[in-house]
Amino acid sequence: MKIQSIIVLGGGSAGFTAAITLKRILPQMNVTILRSPEIGIIGVGEGTTPFFPSHFHQFLKLPMKEFYERAQPTWKLGIRFLWGQQEFFDYSFDQQFAKRTPGLAKNNGFYHEESPADWCLGAGLMERSKAFSRNERGTPEITLNTTAYHIENTKLVSYLEWQAAELGVIIQNETVEQVDREGEEITVLHLRSGGTIAADLYVDASGFASKLLGQTLNENFHDFSDTLFCDSAIIGPRQRQENEEIQPFTTAETMDHGWCWRIDHEHHINRGYVYASSFVSDEQAEAEFRQKNPLVQQTRLVRFRSGRYARSWVGNVIAVGNAAGFVEPLEATALMILCGQSRSLAEALVDSDAQPGPMLKNMYNRFMGERWDEIRDFLAIHYRFNNRLDTPFWQHCREKTPLHGAEEIYQFYRENGPSMLANAIFISPNDQFGAEGYLAMFLGMQVPYQKKHQPSEQERAILQQHKHLIAQQANRGASVSEALQVVRDPRWRWA
Ligand SMILES: Cc1cc2nc3c(=O)[nH]c(=O)nc-3n(C[C@H](O)[C@H](O)[C@H](O)COP(=O)(O)OP(=O)(O)OC[C@H]3O[C@@H](n4cnc5c(N)ncnc54)[C@H](O)[C@@H]3O)c2cc1C
């Protein structure tokens, strides 16, 4: 049967992103969103990876002007980790360690101990709290190749709602109470308001409820709690202080029983403590959070379960966002993965002439399952090798975190150091973090390895020159506030 109509169940960032992507790529498709005003949205999810701007601006080519006016993002160049024994280290979205500076015998990672800073422009800018470099005329070079966003969740969702409506997506405020199925096919949704509604394909974007995939089709859930021990977050905003710069990066700070994010928006800063409730009570966690963040105002608690459904496309249901799986936001991957899900679904429908067969669904499920597992494995190394604190939680993480698919990557690193050869075999070309991500974390946490390289005098001189040029460019960089002024100037034109 050719799919002609799609119901998206859920109007959070996942539901709207899926609906926008489908309608943009398949304009003839009837796409309807059902979202429940009683249930509402999760209301968190504020840091992205560079895949998010690439999805909206390059793949979907949606107008930049409206995006900036409505979503009001600020820019994120990477993550600053207060992790391991160094005061901090920066994981930049630009390439630092998985490349070779011309003239060096080995790739940059082998020279990390010489001096960890200024390996690339992104890291140099992060170091100096700058967002963009400048051209010869002194104007900030606002390019988004290695840049992600910080966006307040409510502003993002309200932008998405506007954009969906503009594209012709029908949006209905309805709560789905009951679902009828025949085998693995959903046949009809029963609405609390009394009616029923049906479509050819159902996108389950109902958040943690996973109303269609989890609750109705009872798909198996692969629990990640053997690896990721955290299950709760306390979240609280604080006002930006006078003269406090807008940081162009997310901070991830080690806490006694987990870690705490800092995300800078234009007018306020959001902090959130992700912790393991098996190690600390909610009250103790809140006390530690407030003691380290005395300016935080009202807080709220969110519980979560880490893991993914075995298959996310079953029969005529395909789940996206939290309805398909969830991992804690240590690498801010949820918005990235839901963009990827939406894009892969749209491409699958285009290539199959909207008649997806069983092998296509198998391929999709395998591809998505691998992406979720890679995120779990990458996060596992963050926990296994963070030796900043000696609390029972962190001792447990160091002793008990299995590395799963990252075990070989780690063993290779331990034996060979920051060599790029691991890329060929141990790291999938589809891995979202790649060698750069692994090297940034291994080197930042100072995970020991055997094959050290002693740079020659000539190499030292090359390094010094390379870093001098980066530092010069970064020192002249433009701050987030300055770049915001530039893109808000009526004369500004997006490339
Ligand atoms: C503490 C925390 C921090 C996070 N930080 C980040 C981050 O920094 N970066 C990042 O990328 N991600 C982050 N995330 C994840 C991110 O918030 C979500 O993955 C993302 O917002 C997608 O949510 P969603 O749309 O799947 O679910 P939701 O926002 O929960 O939306 C679900 C929708 O389904 C509707 N619905 C549910 N049941 C029914 C029903 N029966 N009938 C009708 N409608 C229904 C709801 O009304 C709602 O509209 C974080 C998550 C948590 C918990």
Model description:
This protein has 495 residues and is of the alpha+beta class. The protein has three domains: 5-46 and 152-219 and 307-356, 3-Layer(bba) Sandwich (FAD/NAD(P)-binding domain), CATH 3.50.50; 95-147 and 376-475, no CATH class; 232-303, no CATH class. The protein contains 15 helices and 21 strands. The protein has helices at residues 13-25, 51-59, 64-71, 121-127, 153-167, 211-216, 282-292, 334-351, 358-384, 392-400, 407-416, 422-425, 434-444, 457-475, 480-488; strands spanning 5-9, 30-35, 74-76, 78-82, 89-92, 148-150, 170-173, 176-182, 185-191, 196-197, 201-204, 221-223, 232-239, 250-255, 258-264, 268-275, 300-303, 307-309, 313-314, 317-319, 325-326. A seven-stranded mixed β-sheet has the order 5-4-14-15-16-13-17. Helix 4 crosses helix 14. The longest helix is centred in the last third of the chain and has 27 residues, at 358-384. The radius of gyration is 23 Å and the shape is globular. The mean pLDDT is 96. The structure holds flavin-adenine dinucleotide. Residues 9-15, 34-36, 39-42, 44-48, 175-176, 205-207, 209, 211, 233, 272, 302, 304, 321-323, 329, 332, 334-335, 338 line the site of flavin-adenine dinucleotide (FAD).
